[in-house]
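Lab notebook, design round three. We kept the backbone fixed and only want residue identities now. Task for the bench partner: fill in a sequence for the structure below.
Input C-alpha cells:
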C-alpha cells in the first residue's frame, strides 16, 4: 500500500503516520530524514544534495526526487510506504507519478488532513518548550504544573518562533496554496481522500484507518 500523507504543520501528520506504520507494517518516509541519511550514506544523490546544502542553497526538486527514488526501491518498501512531506509541489507530484510509472505502479491513497488556520494556530501557538531540557508543554492541552516552569527540571518555558501565531498563519498560507494544486492534481482519481483534521486525533485516525481498510 503506497500512501501520500498531506497536511499542514500541526494537522497531526506525524501521529497518523505512526499509527499507519504500526498497523500496516510499512515504513514512513519523511523527506527531511531521508535527505539527511542519503548525505550520511554518501549515495549518488546524497552527494549531489550535500553540494547544494554546503553552499547554503535549497536542494532542487530533481535531487529530492532522486533521493525518494533511491529510498522507495529499498527492500523494506516492497509492501508499500507512507510519504510524509513529499510531494510538496505540483512538479514533485508529477515527477513522482513518472518515477512510479517507470517502476510499474502508482500511489494507492492520498490522505489529505485538512485543518483550518484557527485549529492549527490554537494547537501550535499554545506550545511551550523548556529552555533547559527541551520538554514540550501546551498551555491548553498539556500545561505545566507551575506556569512558565518545566515540570521535569524547573527550567524556563518559552514559545519557539515557529510556533508564534503570525508564523503559523504565514506557513499555513504557503502550504495551502501548494496543497490546493496537489488536491486538483490527485482528485481526478478515486484515491484522493480528504479527512477533517480539525477533529480529535482519535477520530482522525479512525477515519484514516477506515479509508485504508484497517
Ligand atoms: Zn526542563
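Proposed sequence:
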Amino acid at each position: 500500500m503506497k500512501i501520500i500523507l498531506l497536511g499542514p504543520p500541526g494537522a497531526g501528520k506525524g501521529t497518523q503516520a505512526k499509527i499507519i506504520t504500526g498497523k500496516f507494517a510499512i515504513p514512513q518516509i519523511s523527506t527531511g530524514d531521508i535527505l539527511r541519511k542519503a548525505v550520511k550514506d554518501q549515495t549518488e544523490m546524497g552527494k549531489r544534495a550535500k553540494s547544494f546544502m554546503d553552499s547554503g542553497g535549497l536542494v532542487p526538486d530533481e535531487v529530492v526526487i532522486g533521493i525518494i527514488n533511491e529510498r522507495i526501491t529499498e527492500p523494506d518498501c516492497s509492501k508499500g510506504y507512507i510519504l510524509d512531506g513529499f510531494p510538496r509541489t505540483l512538479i514533485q507530484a508529477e515527477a513522482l507519478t513518472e518515477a512510479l510509472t517507470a517502476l510499474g505502479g502508482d500511489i494507492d491513497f492520498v490522505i489529505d488532513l485538512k485543518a483550518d488556520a484557527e485549529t492549527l494556530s490554537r494547537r501550535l501557538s499554545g506550545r511551550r518548550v523548556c529552555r533547559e531540557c527541551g520538554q514540550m508543554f501546551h498551555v491548553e492541552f498539556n500545561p505545566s504544573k507551575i506556569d512558565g516552569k518545566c515540570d521535569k527540571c524547573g527550567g524556563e518555558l518559552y514559545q519557539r518562533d515557529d510556533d508564534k501565531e503570525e508564523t503559523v498563519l504565514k506557513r499555513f498560507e504557503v502550504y495551502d496554496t501548494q496543497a490546493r494544486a496537489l488536491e486538483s492534481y490527485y482528485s481526478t482519481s478515486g484515491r484522493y481522500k480528504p479527512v477533517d483534521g480539525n477533529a480529535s486525533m482519535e477520530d482522525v485516525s479512525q477515519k484514516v484507518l477506515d479509508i485504508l481498510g484497517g
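Keep this in mind before ordering anything: The chain has a mean pLDDT of 92.
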